[in-house]
Amino acid sequence: MPLPRSKAPALTVPVLSGGTWSLADSKPEAFTIVVFYRGKHCPICKTYMKEIEELLDQAGAQGIEVIAVSMDGEERARDTHAEITTEKLRIGYEMDEATARAWDLYISSGRPGTAEPELFSEPGLFVIDAEGVVFFAQTQSAPFTRPDFGKLLGGLKFVVENNYPSRGDLTKAA
User: Fold this and answer.
1) What phi and psi values does residue 129 have, to the nearest 5 degrees?
2) Would the pTM of this model clear 0.90, i.e. be above it?
3) Of 65, 78, 142, 168, which is most buried by a Cβ count within 10 Å?
């Protein structure tokens, strides 16, 4: 997993609003939050994305930009967008497997006879600072829980106001 206080992996994806979005070109005042979601087939992802949508104005006021990204193709991403009726949340699609692995996301194969695609990433959430360095990293091997987005924004407000450092950079042995 990309460790806190290390440079974030590259991420460039097409976005539903047109064009492409690149982490390297992201210049937030404080942070960029990258939310990796499973895809159209995941009702829990859709609920989480709706919760994020409701808090985007607060995030923006804190100098935080947010993008949700999946391995879905454009059609599936557009279907997801239509189902959850997001108006502000930037949605990236067509993340390839190599990029998902660079972010150390868990990868699953779709179950036969379901709406799951052949291959998709499991959820993850990364907070990247304005210099492109990982501040917070979280990945999951199942869809069942997500960080409370409101509490995350509250925590990041504390971080900025108190110059609180990133933690966990010594978690994995070299």
Assistant:
1) -75, 175
2) yes
3) 65
